[in-house]
Each structure stands twice: as C-alpha cells, then as structure tokens.
Design goal:
4 helices; single chain; elongated; mainly alpha; 111 residues
Length: 111
C-alpha cells in the first residue's frame, strides 16, 4: 500500500537533488499519481499470481474456447495465430474485474 507521507518526502528529496543539478522539478501531483498507478498495478499482479480463482478462470475460458472451436484438444499456443496472447489477455481482463469486485467488497468491510 502506498504511504503518501513517505512518497511526498521522497518526491521533495528528489526535487531538492534536481534543483541542485539545475534540472526541472517534478510535479508532486503527477509523481503521486504515477506512484499510485504503479502500486495498484503491483497489487493486481500479486492478486493474479496468488489467487486460486485464476486457475478456475483459465479452465472455464479454455473449455468455452474449445467448445466454440469444436476442438476438445485445442491449447492456446503462439503469440498471434495460436491464440496464446488473446487467451492470456482475456484471462487478465476477467481477473482484473474479479480484483476490482474483491477490492470493493473488502473496502466496504473496513468502514
């Protein structure tokens, strides 16, 4: 989780160093936004890596695609024509929706 106080101190320190080097200063708001976005992305990656839901999402999507293709042995391989990248993108999109719902559910419990 992003600690805003620590992040502000680090940004101030970097701006001090940049001022000493006659470089343009960083926008604190822009830097905080960048740190927030990267922290959220890290949280999502951790969720994807450790969630038992991911396996079920992959299995269900694979079963659906096999059924649609009419090929019960199809596996997503390759980057373009093999469907591996598209399969991975669809799994990540679904996992991102699950992650958002989970964050909302947990957020309500904290209040």
């Amino acid at each position: 989780m992003l600690d805003i106080t620590t992040a502000r101190m680090e940004i101030d320190e970097r701006n001090r160093i940049r001022a000493d080097a006659n470089l343009p200063l960083l926008s604190p708001a822009r830097e905080l936004r960048r740190l927030y976005v990267s922290d959220r992305e890290r949280e999502f990656e951790d969720f994807c890596r450790t969630s038992p839901i991911r396996r079920r999402v992959e299995e269900r999507l694979l079963a659906r695609l096999r059924r649609l293709r009419g090929d019960p042995q199809w596996i997503p391989t390759g980057f373009l024509s093999g469907g591996g990248f598209a399969f991975s993108s669809r799994v990540r999109r679904t996992m991102r929706r699950v992650w958002r719902m989970e964050r909302r559910r947990v957020g309500r419990g904290r209040q």
